[in-house]
Sequence to fold (985 residues):
Amino acid sequence: MQTQDKAQDKVIRSAAKKSTMQSVKMQLEQINQFMQAQGITGSVAYEQETSHMVRCGRSQISLNVSEQGEKYFIELQQGKQKVAGSTTAQIDELDKLKTFVLSLNEKLVFMPEVAHRRPMMPIAQATLDNHVDSTTDKTLTNGLDKCKVDPALANLDSKRLVDLFKQCAEYFKNENVEISGAFSAGIQRYAVINTLVEKALSYEGSDYNVEMVLQLLDHDKKELRVSDVGHALNQFDSEKLIKHLAKMYQIKTQTPRQEITPGEYDVIFYADAFADLTNYMGYLTLYGESYEYGMGMLQKDKHKVGNKLFSDKLSIVDDPEDTDILFNRPVGRNGIKRPHFPLISEGVLNNLFYSEKEDCDRFNVALNNDANVAGMKVQTGTGPATFDEMVKSCVKPTLFIPYIHYMNFTNAAKGEFTGTSRFGTFLIEQGAIKAHLYNQRINDSYHNTFNNIEWLSSTLTHINTSNTYGMRNAASIACPLFVKVNKVKITGSNKQNG
Amino acid sequence: MLDKAKKLITYLKTKGADYADIRIHEVDEEERISTMNGDIEDYQLNSKQGYGIRVLVNGAWGFSSSEIMSFDAMIATGEIAIEKAQSASDFIKQSINLAEKETLIDSYHSPCEIDPFSVSTADKIARLQQLDKQLQHEKFEYSGLYCHFYKRHILYVDSDGSEIKRQLIEIDAGYFAYATDKEGHKQRRTFNMPQNANGTTGWENIINDQQFDHTLRIQTELLALLDAPVCEKEICDVILLPEMMALQTHETIGHALELDRILGYELSYAGGSHVELEDFGQLQFGSEKLTARADGTVQNSPGSIGFDDDGVKARNVTLIEKGRLQDAITSRQMIMEANDKAGKVIFTASGATSRSQNYSNLPIERMNNINVDAGQDGSLQDIIAATKNGLLMESPRSWSIGSNRENFHFATEIAWKIKDGKITNMVRNATYSGDSLPFWRSLDMVGNQSTWELQPVFHCGKGQPNQIMRLAHGVPACRFSNVQVGK
Fold:
């Protein structure tokens, strides 16, 4: 075992030595200089990930994987012609990258001119020395570069990941349950430069996200879930997660199962469910590109920045300086400096993200952010701070929905969506949980949901929103622990199939 | 590269691996071209190279991947995989056993007439602009098309002695058009280029004259959709055309029958399945008109890759025969585990559906070509003529499925109302929903071969880390009775 650990350390140390953020930036600056010397206008972006993941199913580890990936993204523009490409390469393969740039440049002549395409803009430049030491565990902000890496996550022993599921199994050893889940940890780095500037900008961050599911074999295979996300390993608390599962287990096994009739219900969404609603609403509301194309739920002739869209209890902000936001990056992958960015203030639409140059050129609007690296925070309210307080607050029949499975838009233009509750839907009444329910299907609209907010919890929590598609890209929403929404449309349940 | 791979496997065996395999993507290229309103919106050339190493140690998997192609890096990556397996073996209830398979030294090439990577950039752009122009209309805000060409050369070597070389070419192409309806809301028509199951997968498909017919049809349908009435809420028969049938099959047969999902390995993410091990051979999944299969032997399809990533040769597995559930989407590992759990032999051989998105991912159960057999109920016109009150539906607009695939709610881009055996009018914003088993049991007409199409799917997500898979569904037009629509 020690031999293998040493082998892993060797590879990690070797990789770290070969490609510190500083060496990556130097490499990007060299390619940039090469492009400038060749008279080529364009940008070079670098992305790197180190990912460790353990997955558990049927109360045993089903996969334990390690991924290393490094990729370079190159975009060349000449007048109104453009071409793009990406390639894998190592830090010492400068010649490979130069060859790739030249091969793309040869394609550029075949690209027809696009009339609305505007010239490339310089990326943001820091006024301070950009260098940061990526090997330190300190959070450093120096100029526009950022390094927020916990070395404990970068060099994580997979035994630590496995142990979470072992602990959970030990806790529930006397119950007939099966444990599933995934625990992922790693680092993500990116750097960007273009030929209109001399210095590259970079971001380097670590993260973990974990989810654990109990399937209750003696109780009709009902399911419960707990999750967590963070940027440093010392934020992770396995006992807290298991304790939460134990509490939900108790509720699920000590309350009767009940069916409810379809109709409108007051619903308390747990943070996971509300973050999901916010995320999906955001796709249809907060992306300037969707707004310009008319693909979202806002119509240009009816809705504009400055209009009141939602309940005045709702405020959402993206702010790279806000310490409540886990993965706050000062610079986007598009090289733009990200400002304090209020999105919704007391229900009023403040800003839209414009992140994609090609779309902005088409509509002649300015890039103002990079939504791909944004971190939204839904402001807390004055509602119940804890689970017990939340339960006590419900006098009238109220549903508790912790999680929404497979949400999708049924009619994007109207903001209509559907999805089913999962992992423990409860009926709360007279300050107590009266029953647990079948998974309920919601068919409603974001207009209704975000206008009918009764209260938001005073406790803030973090919900993972990274989707693990493509390279590692840590993302989370800072969100109230609970949000109560009135008159949510429930259209059926999974009772027929159990 | 083959020598390096073989030496590595030998080395890993000496280091304690009970089994080891390596998949090397020696070539992995992608060319993406898309147009919008006559412009070349995007042109990208993407390439990557790397390998993934999988080992079994003490009954547990370990996996590691890298893009450093030297032999030293392979050794170091393999050692990480061994360490991962050792850690994993600290928490297992049941050691992983792999079902028997044939040791193969073999190769596979996608059938291709004109390699798209051999066609000049200028010619490709000219053809796409030609089609884009044909699709445009003054009432459309946006219209365009996309063509993504993929080329992968993959070398697979395992400690059972198999050496397999695959050269895969795939084309993902389609059209889109958007316009504003009479209520001021966007409507769209899209078209995903189907594959000729008995044909080839090269550039010849893009220069085919049929493409003009498709652009004209999309144009005509979107224009009509703008003034069409909204789909009303009712219970009626629905006839699903191939694009919609592909989604229905994908979500409620394909995913429901992935054996890892049935066993519970996807619970924390994608969900489980309403299917239990004891259902195989017993459960009436659908009406007697339903026969479905996982057919990796279809000649031309993104779901046909010759051999899966366990090194098992592609098979044609009957999943559902005359409505009765028979088999699942399986791998070497899962059939052994399922048989063991059930205490009897349910699955006799791997279905060759262990697949990974990329060299950096561990293979898991994935669909290949999940097809529904054509039936005996005539042409589409015959099915329409036999329908008293129904809705003809095509092209997915949204989909949401219960976590055990037990129910679903789908929206379609376009639908047509049928009254007394005739199409009366088009409707927009159509939706339908149902519970999976009752829905498949309500299948009462299955179109003949003239209605059967192979619909490719290039973006099926599953697993953690999430893997996007290429596959297909060969499906006929089908009618289902008494379905809730418009809700």
In short: Chain A has two domains: 15-251, 258-497. The first strand of chain A starts at residue 42 and ends at 57. The CA atoms of residues 185 and 208 of chain A lie 4 Å apart.
